Known about the structure:
The protein is of the alpha/beta class. The chain has helices spanning about 5-15, 45-65, 75-90, 130-140, 160-165, 175-185, 195-205, and strands spanning about 20, 25, 35, 35-40, 70-75, 95, 110, 120-125, 145-155, 170-175.
Amino acid sequence: MENIKxxxxxxxxxxxxxxxxxxxxxxxxxxxxxxxxxxxxxxxxAPAVRNDVENALAETIRREYPDCEVLMGTSTAGIAxxxxxxxxxxxxxxxxxxxxxxxxxxxxxxxxxxxxQKVVVVEDLISTAGSVIxxxxxxxxxxxxxxxxxxxxxxxxxxxxxxxxxxxxxNISLTDFDTIAQVxxxxxxxxxxxxARLLAFRNNPADESWIGGK
Length: 214
């Protein structure tokens, strides 16, 4: 039976949620040049893939975080996944803004959250982990006990891993960069020789020698 990492990787590739351009890299908001761009929002408009993703998120939470009391999505990409997964699990959910609103009640955390509640953060993807750790810290400041994070995809970048470790927060991803690269080569989305270039990027994004196959 195909494992979850491979299943979700195939799903993301099948709907074009993962784009490969090792010769014409994407530029992220952070300025990092990347041979890969992952748009997990496309899972929401692909019902079969969405079903796989949400059921896998629910099963991961049941298995890894059985004491979870509340799901909190990251804004904005994690909100829908937290809502659907919360429905499957019969759990309340809310979401955390990138900053407090400048009107109304000035909330950063939307939805009811009581001090001491055990929370799992739902994120769509993790690269350098900066934004998701800000969410974790906001929840901790509000008195929540953050059990950990579930995410659809992680790049597994060293900076992200170091940040998660420093914040003392655990992340479980449904699939990862290595699996996506391997499955992409198997299904002819990329050439087998491109795997080494992709992994070179992941291991050291600052070294752009992988661009153009140099």
